[in-house]
Write a structure and sequence with these properties.
The chain contains 18 helices and no strands. The chain has 419 residues and is mainly α. Helix 1 runs parallel beside helix 4 and helix 7 runs antiparallel to helix 15.
Length: 419
């Protein structure tokens, strides 16, 4: 038992590191652990490595919101949080933003654990029924959200155009032999990171004094956001083709909220989604035999028979990990918030842009990818990412970069199945 406790704490430390350092994805660290498993299993148990992996992924999922919101450095799971989180930072509410995402991630894990028996009974049936019609669900949800987030006909047409253009960008980009992780880093940096920072610079934004006092009330609307994140995370864990892009759309709709509560509810839901998706990708191994993430795939290989005892162990590890990660997230977030107050916003923004580009091209050299091609993708995605700011529409529609390729893939699977 002591060895599993040690594995849990080591995983949390590794997850905190991968979450706070831009460009280092938890799947990269997981791949290193898995690649070394043949050697490590000589003196460590499979359960030790699995506990390490899940603690690392939970910690990463929560703590990665700190650089995402405060610095504008996106990953797939946090891309939608950048604009509302960045807005709160520019309002001097960074401490409040960090507490909102921490509460969302922690609360949604609790909700999922409480509702696990219900999900275990209902969702496998739903998964079997909807498997062949994933493309229809994706298309329907996407069109509904484009309409739902548009304020009028003109906004709807612009939103639909951006959704389609981002989808074309995604489909074209992912046809290349370049690593999908590197391509995601490139497109998300442009669509949601660099473009948001550049617009803030153009808007003459500055970092105001960050209020050390914050008014955060766990009201009915925030609880609704926590439930929305948990349910969206559960849907991601069972429906094929659904990722953070589609889950973000579902969480955005379920979280509701209006007026001054809209941003807070959305951040709560997105954080809950990102964290519970990690847990449900593990749970889905037992319930439907379908690992839903790279970390879950590694765990599925490490454990020959995934039993109820494994499910209970990993659920408990997830609860411990998110509890400790919540404290780490608050400490790191507050430290970042204090440091940012004495820094010139324009210089910080330029530094972050340069850092993102440097990290991207360092990985390009490591993976021996075409630098000119990645530069073209980065420029294109940045230009596309600027358009919503000037058109006055939601940047959520740019998630078509992942949704449209998924629709095409599952439509082809459906066609091949009926032929």
């Amino acid at each position: 038992m002591l060895d599993l406790i040690l594995a849990c704490f080591l995983g949390i430390i590794c997850g905190a590191f991968t979450g706070i350092v831009p460009g280092i994805h938890v799947n990269t660290a997981g791949a290193i652990v898995f690649a070394s498993s043949t050697f490590l299993l000589g003196f460590l148990s499979p359960e030790f490595l699995c506990v390490l992996l899940i603690a690392m992924s939970i910690a990463h999922a929560l703590i990665e919101f700190v650089p995402s919101m405060l610095l504008g450095v996106p990953e797939e799971g946090t891309a939608l949080s950048i604009l509302p989180g960045h807005r709160m930072v520019l309002e001097g509410r960074s401490k409040e933003a960090i507490r909102i995402v921490s509460l969302g991630g922690f609360g949604s894990i609790l909700i999922i654990i409480i509702l696990l028996p219900i999900f275990a009974f209902v969702l496998p049936t739903v998964h079997a029924f909807t498997k062949e019609f994933t493309w229809v669900i994706l298309l329907g949800v996407s069109l509904y959200m484009v309409w739902r987030l548009s304020s009028g006909k003109k906004a709807f047409y612009w939103s639909l155009l951006l959704f389609i253009l981002s989808g074309i960008l995604g489909w074209t980009t992912f046809q290349t032999p370049i690593s999908s992780g590197l391509l995601l880093m490139c497109t998300f940096s442009g669509l949601f990171g660099i473009s948001t920072i550049m617009f803030s610079l153009n808007d003459n934004s500055f970092i105001p004094h960050q209020n050390k006092f914050y008014d955060l009330n766990l009201n009915k609307e925030m609880i609704k956001g926590i439930f929305a994140g948990g349910i969206a995370g559960a849907i991601l864990g069972f429906l094929p083709g659904f990722g953070p892009a589609q889950g973000g759309i579902i969480a955005q709709e379920l979280s509701g909220g209006s007026g001054e509560n809209e941003t807070e509810n959305f951040l709560t839901a997105i954080s809950g989604l990102n964290t519970t998706d990690t847990l449900f990708s593990i749970i889905s191994i037992y319930l439907i035999g379908n690992p839903r993430s790279a970390i879950a795939v590694y765990m599925n290989y490490l454990i020959e028979t995934f039993s109820v005892s494994h499910l209970l162990l990993f659920t408990f590890v997830s609860l411990i990990s998110v509890s400790i990660s919540l404290i780490i997230c608050l400490k790191i977030g507050d430290s970042f918030s204090k440091l940012m107050q004495g820094i010139d916003y324009k210089r910080l923004s330029i530094f972050v842009i340069i850092l993102m580009i440097a990290i991207l091209f360092i990985f390009a050299i490591i993976y021996e990818a075409s630098i000119p091609y990645l530069a073209l993708i980065l420029i294109t995605s940045t230009g596309l990412g600027l358009l919503p700011h000037y058109l006055g529409v939601s940047k959520s529609h740019l998630m078509g970069v992942l949704i449209i390729p998924a629709i095409i893939i599952y439509f082809n699977i459906f066609i091949n199945a009926i032929l």
